[in-house]
């Protein structure tokens, strides 16, 4: 006599199982209405695997069906924005989370980062000049931040001259969390950013967020988010590949990957 498990399932059961499968598969493909960092309990976009191209997703405020609010763990106050970007990927690194923090704190090395310029069709420096600061004043320039200085809850400052219309920006950064398996850092502009003598981005409206999660002995998950409320005289979608290539360059720098590694990830 055949066992119960080998009997043919009723038709309605097979239909129900098929529907569940369809809904489950579809749910993994649905585009989230904004970034979801690991600290929120979910992750979006889904990370790329080690040695594969970084996953990068962009959203525009005028195309979102529902208003997006940052998860509380990102420590982002509610603010207007025109663009959201998130990048997610895995990489190999044998060091500690503190050692990862020193890569972000090595401000003077930022000018070595290369990104692919879609408009110029060549590799260009992402940042022209960068300096750590003791305080918010440009006159307080100092050396890079040491491992001992980069502790949980620490706030630090730096300035960088970006190879974009934004030019020179002073940032405040804060280490939100630093443990054996986690590093989370938040950054935002401390001063308005002007373009053509017009306020282009208000204070605090050019924000970034980094989260590193240790997966095993050498694998880490990298999550990066950018929120910008820059005014644009052109359709902002025109610059999407530029934003994405800059995100790729930052990831490669922190992950210890050659930043001008061929081929470029986004070429148009």
Please describe the structure with a list of short key phrases separated by commas or semicolons.
16% helix; globular; 268 residues; disordered N terminus; Alpha-D-Glucose-1,6-Bisphosphate, Chain A, domain 4; two-stranded antiparallel sheet
Could you characterize the architecture of this molecule?
With 268 residues, the protein is an alpha+beta fold. The chain has one domain: START domain (Alpha-D-Glucose-1,6-Bisphosphate, Chain A, domain 4), CATH 3.30.530. The chain has 3 helices and 13 strands, in the order H-E-E-H-E-E-E-E-E-E-E-E-E-E-E-H. It has helices at residues 11-29, 97-105, 240-255; strands at residues 55-60, 83-92, 114-117, 122-125, 127-133, 141-142, 155-162, 168-178, 182-189, 193-195, 198-201, 206-214, 219-228. The strands form 3 sheets. It has a 9-stranded antiparallel sheet, covered by helices on one side. It has a two-stranded antiparallel sheet with strand order 3-4. A two-stranded antiparallel sheet has the order 10-11. The longest helix is centred in the N-terminal third of the chain and has 19 residues, at 11-29. The radius of gyration is 21 Å and the shape is globular. The protein starts with 10 loop residues before the first helix and ends in a 13-residue tail after the last helix. 30% of the residues are buried.
């Amino acid at each position: 006599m055949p066992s119960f498990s080998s009997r043919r399932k009723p038709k309605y059961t097979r239909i129900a199982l098929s529907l569940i499968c369809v809904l489950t598969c579809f749910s993994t493909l649905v585009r989230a209405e904004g970034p979801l960092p690991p600290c929120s309990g979910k992750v979006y976009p889904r990370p790329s695997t080690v040695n594969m191209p970084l996953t990068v997703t962009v959203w525009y405020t005028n195309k979102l069906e529902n208003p997006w609010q940052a998860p509380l763990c990102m420590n982002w106050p509610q603010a207007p924005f025109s663009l959201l970007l998130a990048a997610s990927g895995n990489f190999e690194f044998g060091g500690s989370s503190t050692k990862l923090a020193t890569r972000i704190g090595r401000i003077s090395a930022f000018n070595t980062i290369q990104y692919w310029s879609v408009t110029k069709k060549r590799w260009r420096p992402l940042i022209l000049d960068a300096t750590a600061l003791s305080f918010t004043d440009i006159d307080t320039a100092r050396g890079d931040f040491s491992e001992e200085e980069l502790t949980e809850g620490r706030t630090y400052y730096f300035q960088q001259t970006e190879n974009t219309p934004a030019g020179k920006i002073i940032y405040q950064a804060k280490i939100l969390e630093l443990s054996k398996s986690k590093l989370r850092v938040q950054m935002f502009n401390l001063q308005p950013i002007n373009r053509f003598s017009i306020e282009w981005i208000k204070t605090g409206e050019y924000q970034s967020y980094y989260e590193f999660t240790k997966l095993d002995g050498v694998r880490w998950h990298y999550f990066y988010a950018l929120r910008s409320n820059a005014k644009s005289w052109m359709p902002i979608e025109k610059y999407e590949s530029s934003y994405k290539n800059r995100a790729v360059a930052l990831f490669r720098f922190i992950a210890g990957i050659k930043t001008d590694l061929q081929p470029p990830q986004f070429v148009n």
